[in-house]
Amino acid sequence: MARRYDTRATIFSPEGRILAENGVVLAGEKRNVSPLLDDVKYSEKIYKIHDDLCCSVSGITSDANVLINELRMIGQRYLLTYQEPAPIEYIVSRLCNIKQAYTQFGGKRPFGVSFLYMGWDKHYGYQLYQSDPSGNFGGWKATCVGHNSQTAISILKQEYKIGETQLNDALRLAIRVFSKTLDTTKLTPEKIEIAVLQHDDKTNQTTIRMLKDEELTTLIKQYEEEQSKLEADRQKQQQTTEKDKK
Amino acid sequence: MVESIIGIRGKDFVLLAQDANTTKYGILNMKFDTNRLFKLSEHCAMLAAGEPGDVVQFAEYVGKNIQLYKMINGIELSPYACANFTRHEMATSLRSRNSFLANVIVGGFSTNERDQERAQLYSIDYLGAMISANVVAHGFCQFFALAIGDRLWKEDL
């Protein structure tokens, strides 16, 4: 597998993650730097830690690979001892202790990676966490990491409704944030990837799936139609106010 | 072997029973109020019988580790997880310098509503074998308790 490097090593490429009432949505910008790079089958940025937890990476990919391995080991060690899946916060917290150690002991440099974790466990249901190279971590309802993350976070602050966001709302919100923060003028399915995590209480199974290109196209088209409708309404409003003025 | 510990599981409860004698050398009863019950968490407990020193050492070790888990992670382990942890420790120590001659019963009621079966009862022997059953027992009494349990236990106790 060809190793991918975030070409701007100090600036992380953008991703956002949103917690919904019945799932978690993660959206990331794809950085296919060169068309000559080898294709990755599952995902460029989203890694499965265990059945109910996956995470996405922002930063130095080689550092991330080491930490992803450690995350998986933490999950499996817990499973070996307790014979049940590890709580999400347990895994995140253990990894962050390791990250923190590199900032205090040994004289080695810290890991240049930020993670966004999304998962489900039987204690707290759907959860979303973010961790950074300092080893600090926090739980979120919606957050964004990387380039233009401030803009994205302010949009999320306005639009995310606590306790009322369903999965489709979250997906639409993700598209809206991307269209406002990405460098490109037009949003296309090749530039973004979206993953959705959902847990079925009846079968006690969690599914993590990547949205296919067709689904992405539909979402983008819905967003663009909404936008053009808003624009048309706004223009009509302007015309009527100008008429009134006259 | 003379010490008896019994566990019985019902629909929404777990019952743990023990005898209270400490009989040394088969002829001398030293103590009439022995405690074999060790609290693991608010909703889970362990009965332990066997070599007296090992019993206390092992039970306290497991109990304190379960308390530590709660302090660190803020959540309580289900009886299922407690029992598996106990078994893991027993099995790991078995093939090391310090093994424990203690037979243990772990039982409790899970506080997590998502668990299918909330009343949970497990028996772990000194070799690290674990089973989950409706009636479990260790010591000479097991010959009686298990037979009576087989005959008389029913679903809606």
From TrEMBL, chain A:
One of its GO terms (cellular component) is proteasome core complex, alpha-subunit complex. GO terms for biological process: proteolysis involved in protein catabolic process. Residues 227-246 are annotated as: Disordered. Signal peptide: none annotated. PROSITE patterns: PROTEASOME_ALPHA_2. It comes from the Eukaryota. It holds the Pfam family Proteasome. Keywords: Proteasome. InterPro entries: Ntn_hydrolases_N (IPR029055), Proteasome_alpha (IPR050115), Proteasome_alpha-type (IPR023332), Proteasome_sua/b (IPR001353). PANTHER family: PROTEASOME SUBUNIT ALPHA/BETA. Belongs to the peptidase T1A family. This is Proteasome subunit alpha type.
UniProtKB/TrEMBL annotation, chain B:
Its main location: nucleus. Coiled coil: none annotated. The keyword Cytoplasm applies. This is Proteasome subunit beta. Pfam families: Proteasome. PANTHER family: METALLOPROTEASE TLDD (PTHR32194), PROTEASOME SUBUNIT BETA TYPE-1 (PTHR32194:SF2). GO terms for biological process: proteolysis involved in protein catabolic process. Gene3D superfamilies: Glutamine Phosphoribosylpyrophosphate, subunit 1, domain 1. GO terms for cellular component: cytoplasm; nucleus; proteasome core complex. It comes from Adineta steineri. It is found in: Nucleus. Keywords: Cytoplasm, Proteasome. It comes from the Eukaryota.
